[in-house]
Specification:
Number of helices: 5
Structural class: alpha+beta
Order of helices and strands: HHEHEEHEH
Strand order of the largest sheet: 2-3-1-4
Radius of gyration: 28 Å
Shape: elongated
Distance between the termini: 58 Å
Number of strands: 4
């Protein structure tokens, strides 16, 4: 027996089967968790230090190198990358995936405290920042026009 013949002979049965499928689909969909970003902890720390009115060479020699050297001694560090620019130093430490980042950031802060006295007094205290993918905005929108800023914000 084929499906069209069954549907014509027994319409109530087919209607009940479709209703059961719709109800089961609705229940399954309502219990399905929606998670755009899974709860992961990326093993990356950034040490950001600002040194106003200093050139890239000064920033590299006075801030970046000492911080980079001390971050190399932290346990379970896979790689250390640094960027020096005018007035800012960024040192990025990548750890092994199996490490607890709370303990890693605590150990990094302790190591940074050891080299604070080598950093010039004019420079701000180094900030140790954990990378959080949930902090990244989903969308960035830039509007430009003849209207005031509050109207453009409303349009956005």
């Amino acid at each position: 027996m084929n499906l069209p013949r069954l549907a014509v002979r027994r319409p109530v049965t087919i209607l009940m089967l479709v209703a059961i499928l719709i109800v089961l689909g609705w229940v399954s969909l309502s219990r399905l968790p929606i998670d755009l970003f899974p709860d992961i902890e990326v093993p990356v720390l950034a040490i950001i230090t600002t040194y106003p009115d200093a050139g890239p060479y000064e920033v590299e020699s006075l801030i970046t190198r000492p911080v980079e050297e001390v971050m190399g001694t932290v346990n379970n560090v896979k790689s250390v990358t640094s960027y020096s620019s005018k007035g800012a130093s960024i040192v990025i430490a990548e750890f092994e995936w199996s490490i607890d980042m709370d303990f890693a950031s605590l150990e990094a802060r302790e190591k940074i405290d050891q080299v604070k006295h080598f950093i010039p007094d004019e420079a701000e205290a180094p900030m140790v920042v954990k990378f959080d993918p949930m902090a990244i905005p989903i969308m960035q929108l830039v509007l430009n026009g003849d209207r005031p800023a509050h109207e453009l914000r409303y349009i956005a």
